[in-house]
Design a protein that fits this description.
Layout (H helix, E strand, L loop, with lengths): L28 H14 L7 E7 L5 E7 L2 E3 L2 E7 L3 H8 L2 E8 L4 E11 L2 H8 L4 H9 L9 H14 L3 H4 L41 H10 L22 E15 L7 E8 L2 E6 L3
Antiparallel strand pairs: 1-2, 1-5, 3-4, 4-7, 5-6, 6-7, 7-8, 8-9
Bound molecules: flavin mononucleotide.
Flavin mononucleotide binds next to strand 2, strand 4 and helix 2.
Amino acid sequence: MDRPTPDPARLRRSYEGGELLEAQVPADPFALFGAWFADVVAAGLTEPNAMVLATASADGVPSARTVLLKGYGPGGFRFFTNLTSDKARDLAANPRAALVFPWHGMHRQVRVVGRVEPLTHAENAAYFGTRPHGSQLGAWASHQSAVIAGREELEARYAELAARWPDPAEANPAADAKPAGGTEPAGGTEPTGGTEPTGGAAPAGAAKPAGGVEPAAGAALAGGAEPAGAASSGGEGGVPLPDFWGGYAVIPESVEFWQGRPDRLHDRLRYRRERTGWVLERLAP
Ligand SMILES: Cc1cc2nc3c(=O)[nH]c(=O)nc-3n(C[C@H](O)[C@H](O)[C@H](O)COP(=O)(O)O)c2cc1C
């Protein structure tokens, strides 16, 4: 408490090295997203698939929180959550959202705005089945965003569920395919993988169309990104998919890529969806 508090107004950094030029970028924002995502994974940024999801309630009250990207492509940017949470209530009333990927370690940001659609039961079940056992129980244990009396309530509920659906890997250690740290907080922190860091060596802003965009998105959703074996929980005797848990896709109307440059002359390129396809525009920084 005795440490001096830094003055945020005096914190300054010049963003050197990166550039994002029209001549470098693909016609499709998902290809550029894939290239940048590969870059940030290769650069070792913390939680590269963490994104800020902003929603607004029926009466226009905004709220924002971090969720994890679990797939992307022309079908949208996908995440999973509790369907009784505040965000789900917002989305039921107002199915539009904004996303921000805050990739500060590379002086980059991606912003997405679009309409939101729930994923199908089959998609939810497929992804839920890939989650570690502890995360599956965690999904059941938490009535996300409800006020609770204390942590004990959550842990007691988890213990009840763990007794009801024991971890098959513990009953049969030979089958233990659970990754370390399986008791992660709600929302999961499992690796996204799926997207091989193919673009890592590319110079910042070199928007190499990532051939891996579709497979990456598909892999994440089909479970290819998760440790093999975790999917068994979805099978006979495993943890069933809660009917209050599932995913959404944010289907973009616009995707803006921001690359920090010196003297605050940053590059901003925005893809805007028109009936004929994507229109690319440069925005003043
Ligand atoms: C790094 C990180 C990743 C998270 N990932 C998720 C996620 O994928 N899904 C989720 O429901 N909540 C996730 N959370 C928790 C949310 O930020 C939030 O607390 C929760 O979803 C409740 O939000 P709501 O009350 O606005 O619905 C994550 C939080 C952090 C910090």
